[in-house]
Amino acid sequence: MAQVKLEHITKRYEDVTAVDDINLDLQDGEFICLVGPSGCGKSTTMEMVAGLTKPSEGTVHIGDRDVTTLPPKDRGVAMVFQNIALFPHMDVYDNISFGLQLRDYDKEETDRRVEKASDIVQLEGMLDRMPDEMSGGQRQRVAIARAIVREPDVFLMDEPLANLDAKLRVHMRTELQRLHKELDTTIIYVTHDQAEAMTMADRIAVLDAGELQQIDPPLTCYNEPSNLFVAGFIGSPSMNFMSGSITESGLETEYFDLDFDPATVDSVATGQNVTMGIRPEDVYPVETAGALPEPTKRIGATTDVLEPMGDEIFVYLLLGDGEASMDMEGRGAGQLLMSVDPDSDIRGEETIEVVLDRSKIHLFDSSSGEAILHGMPSRQVAGERTGRETGETGGDV
Ligand code: ADP
Questions:
Q1: Measuring from atom 11 of ligand 1, which residue has the nearest CA?
Q2: What's the rounded Cα separation, in Å, for the pair 259 and 217?
């Protein structure tokens, strides 16, 4: 067990800054996921903790030691990678204990550690199997056991589940959480899969273009994303965005207006260009919005594509005249994704009215991308403003 501290860690290659001035302070026993799109610097950051890559600037501390210049073997870390490199001609026992044998551990101690590790990853009774007699998940567990027997201070895992099929990946997530509980060891886990990070981590460090965007518990990243990047990256399907500007009384978009409560008005500047964000589950058909304490006024929409998922239906809505420009997510200006109950009777190409949960509306500064606020708590505004939210599209819910 150990704390891990990265201070001003930077890695420059000739024409690219892979990691740009990152500070991370990991608690003893914490499970941290480094998450972000491909090429954002996750692996390079982890390699600098492991000692496989030398930082251009900055320091790495593990426990109370400055390990910045130490070789990997002296850092007290053990690694598990995406590509499970087991020795095909060795049985499970030898694969797990290979590192201990190299370091001349005696037979008794080796047996003790292999037994304990294989117990933790549930490989009892399989120690004399050969790798080609095992499934992908079992082989990955051998790789994890091989890391466990080292009894490291810190586990480093780089996309260890990426090569497994979807069902096994979900199962292994649970196993890794159990492993973490049992070993109580600091784990740094690299993944591009935000769902993996959300389900396993104590805290998520979100990276983009080599820079740390936010480090917080998963639900904080989900509910209070620090900027547009995090808002768009965390959550699947991703948040809806709509550009607009701040007027004296609220937010004006091409498709609808929202009044602000007085406190919100004070936190934004008139004329400021903003991006409004709302998650699909926070958009409601008018008929089911009754329980919402603070719905917005009605917004007219046409239903476009429906995606039944079994436990919910994703409904793509077209606002305004129904002419939407699509972006990479299949959503563009004038398009809103809504998640509804599977028993909803919504059909394609019908005209409906929807409302947004005001407490779940996010506002971001359009130019910096930084969050301005999460949730508009109340629409109890001065008398002359009430009714403006309606815009052209409807009355009170
Ligand atoms: P991730 O793990 O998030 O996919 P990486 O840390 O592997 O990202 O890479 C971050 C950036 O650094 C990428 O642009 C990648 O091309 C670059 N990079 C990584 N390793 C090298 C290297 N050895 N030489 C040059 N550029 C590299």
A1: 18
A2: 31
Domain boundaries defined on the chain = 4-232, 238-374
- Tell me the pLDDT of the chain averaged across its residues: 88
Mutate to test the pocket of ligand 1, among 9, 14, 44, 192 (most ligand atoms within 8 A of CB): 44
Give the model confidence (pLDDT) of 176-206 as tens digits. 898 898 888 999 999 999 999 999 999 999 9
Fold classification of 4-232 is Rossmann fold (3.40.50)
263 lines ligand 1 (CB under 6 A): no
pTM of the model: 0.89
Using the mean position of ligand 1's atoms as its centre, give its distance from the Cα of residue 313 in Å: 38
Return the best residue to mutate from 16, 33, 47, 81 for the ligand 1 pocket (most ligand atoms within 8 A of CB): 16
Return the ligand 1 atom nearest residue 190 CA: 2
H-run or E-run covering 200:
helix 194-200
Task: Render 3-56 in DSSP notation, one character per residue.
Answer: -EEEEEEEEE-SS-EEEEEEEEEEPTT-EEEEE-STTSSHHHHHHHHHTSS--S
Of 37, 372, 377, 19, residue with least CA distance to 232: 37
Atom of ligand 1 nearest to the CA of 47: 6
CATH architecture of 238-374: Beta Barrel (2.40)
CA atoms of 320 and 376, how far apart (whole Å): 23
Say how far apart CA 295 and CA 284 lie, in whole Å: 9
C-alpha dihedral sign at 228, 233, 234, 236: positive
Q: Residue 338: in which H helix or E strand, if any? A: strand 335-340
| Sign of the Cα pseudo-torsion (239, 228, 15, 157, in order) | negative
Residue 327 predicted with pLDDT over 60: no
Q: In 3-state terms, the chain is what percent helix, strand and coil (to 5)? A: 30, 30, 40
Check residue 345 and report its DSSP letter.
Answer: -
Contact 212, 225 (CB under 8 A): no
pLDDT value at 262 more than 50: yes
Q: What is the CA radius of gyration of the chain?
A: 25
